[in-house]
Write a structure and sequence with these properties.
Elements lengths: L3 E4 L2 E6 L3 H17 L1 E10 H13 L6 E8 L2 H18 L21 E9 L1
Antiparallel strand pairs: 1-2, 3-5, 4-5
């Protein structure tokens, strides 16, 4: 099973491990975000600083007020797989809340080794 560790982005724990071993924990994190929000978007970026930049430069302008890590890895390929899986799960569970038009794409950007899949959301 994938392990969890505290993220520098808050007390929300990011799942780790391979996409297969982290799958259940990733889905629970997506469900948790969906349960706390009126709208959400899932994305990926490099490092906790990348999440902060996305929140400041993009998501605040769209009405989102929080961003939390869902999964972290040093593998871009694993981040891509988990992002796609998380978006598909979110769209199946809470289709009216999910702002993603596509299932994956973009990011990760930056030079940091750790890649994050995150959920940006507007709190209920």
């Amino acid at each position: 099973m994938g392990r969890t560790k505290k993220s520098s982005a808050g007390s929300f724990k990011a799942a780790t491990g391979t996409p297969k071993t982290a799958q259940d924990k990733v889905k629970r994190r997506v469900d948790r975000i969906a349960g706390q929000s009126s709208k959400m978007t899932i994305g990926k970026t490099s490092g906790a600083s990348g999440m902060k930049e996305r929140m400041t430069n993009k998501y605040k302008n769209q009405g989102y007020d929080k961003i939390k890590p869902i999964y972290k890895t040093t593998s871009s390929a694993n981040a891509n797989k988990v992002e796609k899986m998380a978006i598909k799960h979110a769209k199946a569970q809470a289709p009216r809340k999910v702002g993603n038009k596509n299932v994956g794409g973009g990011g990760p950007s930056g030079k940091e080794k750790t890649k994050y899949v995150y959920g940006a959301f507007k709190s209920d």
